[in-house]
Amino acid sequence: MFRDSSRSRLILAVLIAAAVALLVLDARPGGDPVTSAARTGGELVFAPAAAGVNWATAPATALYDGLRRGPGASGRIAELEQANTDLKDQLRAARIDEQRADQLDELLGLAGLGGYEIVAAQAVTHVTARGYADTATIDAGTESGVRPDMTVVNGSGLVGRVTEAGPHTATVMLSTDVKSAVGARLEATRKIGVVNGGTVPGGPDAELTLELFDLEAPVESGDRVVTLGSHEGAPFVPGVPIGTVDDVHVAPGALSRIARITPAVDFSSLDVVGVVVRGPDEGPRDSVLPPRPDKGDRS
Amino acid sequence: MRTVVTLVAVPAAILAQAAIVNRLPFDWGAGPDLVVAVVVAVALTTSPAAAAGCGFAAGLAMDVLPPAEHALGRYTLVLCLAAYVLALLHRNTGTTGALNGRPPVRAVMGVVAATALGVGLGYAVVGLLMGDPRVSLAAVAVNTLVGTALTALAAPLVAFPLLWVRGALGDNEYSAIRGPLPSGRW
To answer: Which fold has domain A117-282?
Structure first.
C-alpha cells in the first residue's frame, strides 16, 4: 500500500526537513532574516491583491451587511426602544451625576486623542487561515511608521497590539486573542489588574476576563476598565478604554478576583483603526490623563 | 499544458484563499480551505514526489502571506505530508477510480473531506508540539469539523474542475492504469 521509489522518498525527506528547519528557525524568539525576508515577499504579493479585492467587493460587502442585519432588525428596534426608555429613566434619576460623567468621558477621550500620534488604517482581514488565532491584518506598515509592539485603538477603545509589520501591511493581535494580556486599571478605584483574552482557568466564559490583584477592591458591573500603560508606551499606552465590567466571578479561595469584561470595541465590525506611533512628548507614566493645568484636581 | 494549468490554478487558489476567503466574516472561525482542495486535485493526478513538492510550495505560500500569526513552516509541513500520502495511496490502491473518465463528484468530495480533516488535525498537532496555547480540544474540534465540512462543500467548485482539466490534458493511457507513473511528471 505504501510502496514507493527511493528517489521519491528522498524528495519527501528533503522537503520535510526544510519545513521543520523553517519551523525551528521561526519559532525561536527574536527575528530571523530568512523568515522575515520571506514574510516581506509574501506581503508584497498580498498587499495589491487585497487592495484589488477591497475595491471590487465594496458594493457586495455593503449588500451582504444589509442582508445579514435584515432579519434581526425588528428585534433590534424593540431592544432599542426598551433601551431608550431605560436611558430616559436613568437620565431623570441621575441628573446630578450626569455632568461629572460627561466630564470624565471627555477627559478619557482626550487621553487617547490629544496626547498620542496616531496612524489611521483599515482592517483588511479578520479571521485567519485555520481559525485559531484572533488577529486582523491592517493596511498600514513600516512605511507609515508602524512597528511591532505598538498599540492599536479605534474610536471606541483598545483593539490590540501589532505583532508583525511589513512595508504595507501589519498583523494585529486583538485583545480577545487567548495569548493577549493587557495591564489594566479600574477607572473608578484605580486598582490594577490584567485583562486576558478569552477565559482564564476558573473564570467565566467570556471574550475578555479581568483579573484583579486586590481581593478587597470593590468591583461592580458597569465599572470601566482602561489600559495601565507600559514602559515607553510599548506595547500598550495608558488610558485607552478596554471595556466595562459585566459581572464579577466570586471564586472561594482564589488569589485574585475575576470579572467578565464586555469589550469597548465591537470586534465583529472592525473597520478603521489607529496605530499609536508616538506618545506625548512628556512621558505620561501611569496617569490616565495628560496634564491639564486648569483641571488638574485629579491625581 | 498540464503544467501551465497547474501553475496558474494553484497560485490563483492561494491568492483567493488569502485575499477573499480569509476576509469573509465567519462567526465560527474556520472557513473553507481552497488550497487543500487544489492540492488534492494535483495529488490525485501526479506522482507522490511531485505532489509533495506541490503541497510544500502551496503550504509555504500560505505561511508567508499575511496574517502571519503562526510559525513559518507549520502549514508547509502538514500540507507536504498530506499531499505525499494522498498521492501514494492513490497510486498504489487507485481508490478514487480511474481518471480517464470523469471521476464521481461524491468521491472527490470524500477525498477532499478526508484530506481536510487530516490537514486540520495535523495542523493542530504541530501547534500542540510547539506549545501553542490556542490549541484546545474544543477549538480543534470546532475548527476542524467546520473547516472540513466547508472545504468538502467547496470541493466540487475548485478541485473537480482542476481534476477534470488535468485528466483531460494528461496522457490518458497512463492515468488509466494502476501502477507507477513516470516520476516527476506534473
So the answer is: Thrombin, subunit H (2.40.10)
